[in-house]
Automatic annotation (TrEMBL):
It catalyses: alpha-D-glucose 6-phosphate = beta-D-glucose 6-phosphate. This is Putative glucose-6-phosphate 1-epimerase. It comes from the Bacteria. The keyword Methyltransferase does not apply. It comes from Leeia speluncae. Pfam families: Aldose_epim. Keywords: Isomerase.
């Protein structure tokens, strides 16, 4: 069924355009959402009587085949630079591909939106269909699911790369990672987290063996990020120098967001045999 046909039978949903992209919007009594069909990327979610749970860069570009800076991009079937193929795009092709919306269900206090993306033959050898279920109610609940269909076992990378608004990055901290080992991408070292994560300069870390939840604390709010099935938390803010130089962030916005991403990457990347499935879920809630 086309997206147009789906929204015609779903109260609260409509279709708009931004730049070259199509956006699905929800204006329901329990919350307002904006989702890009490119990437099946939730860009904004404002639960009733709250402010946005997600950060979308005021300088984000809405162009076909370009990553959108903000919301929750899905990095798949690899994370970061591809390990082996230099020409493959960073963070996989899921975030820059057009997904198909397969179902919209409206309930009393929430809606469920289902999306699917077939593997792209231009980027072998990944043979798998990706499915995403978004549940938007009081909180955000996202579940990704994919089954390897190729004969040869394959290693996948997956991350839900969430961007959160903060009042000032230097007054922001993340709890829940105390004692965890992390790979520091800024200097390629392995470190141990002591206490809460705080930010000064570029922070780009892959925490390992993470289970349960993290809480992002900023001046006026606490955002709880819980996950199931994911073993990495990736924490990123580019800092002033790098952030100011990035066209879709810039000098005025680098300090107004923090990324707390849930994924299975590096040594936690799932190696799937034919028929084997990976399922990962996150819940984002203001507490
Ligand atoms: O600029 P992007 O390709 O969207 O990546 C943005 C960031 O994503 C993750 O957090 C990585 O750990 C960072 O190394 C990267 O800079």
């Amino acid at each position: 069924m086309s997206l147009q046909a789906l929204i015609e039978s779903s109260p609260y949903f409509s279709i708009t355009n931004e730049g070259e992209l199509t956006l699905l919007t929800m204006n329901a009594p329990w919350g307002q959402a904006v989702i890009s069909t490119q990437g099946a990327q939730l860009l904004s979610y404002i639960p009733a009587d709250q402010t946005d749970l997600l950060w979308l860069s005021p300088n984000a570009k809405f162009a076909k085949g370009k990553a959108i800076r903000g919301g929750i991009p899905i990095c798949w079937p690899w994370f970061g630079a591809h390990d082996g193929e230099e020409k493959y795009p960073a963070h996989g092709y899921a975030r820059t591909s057009e997904w198909q919306c397969t179902q919209i269900q409206v309930f009393e206090h929430q809606a469920k939106i289902n999306w699917t993306l077939a593997s792209n033959p231009a980027y072998p050898p990944y043979a798998s269909n990706m499915e995403l279920e978004m549940t938007l109610g009081e909180d955000i609940l996202l579940q990704v699911r994919f089954t390897h269909t190729g004969e040869i076992p394959e290693r996948y990378g997956i991350a839900l790369h969430s961007y959160f608004p903060v009042t000032s990055i230097n007054q922001t901290s993340i709890s829940g990672l105390n004692g965890k080992m992390y790979f520091d991408k800024t200097n390629s070292s392995i470190q141990k987290q002591i206490g809460d994560v705080s930010f000064s300069g570029e922070v780009d870390r892959v925490y390992k063996d993470v289970k349960g939840e993290c809480v992002l604390n900023t001046n006026n709010q606490r955002i709880q990020i819980s996950s199931l099935g994911f073993q990495n938390a990736i924490v990123w803010n580019p800092g002033e120098q790098l952030g100011s130089s990035m066209g879709d962030i810039g000098p005025d916005h680098w300090d107004s967001f923090a990324c707390v991403e849930n994924g299975n990457i590096q040594e936690h990347s799932p190696m799937l045999i034919k028929g084997e499935q990976f399922v990962g879920t996150i819940r984002i809630a203001r507490r």
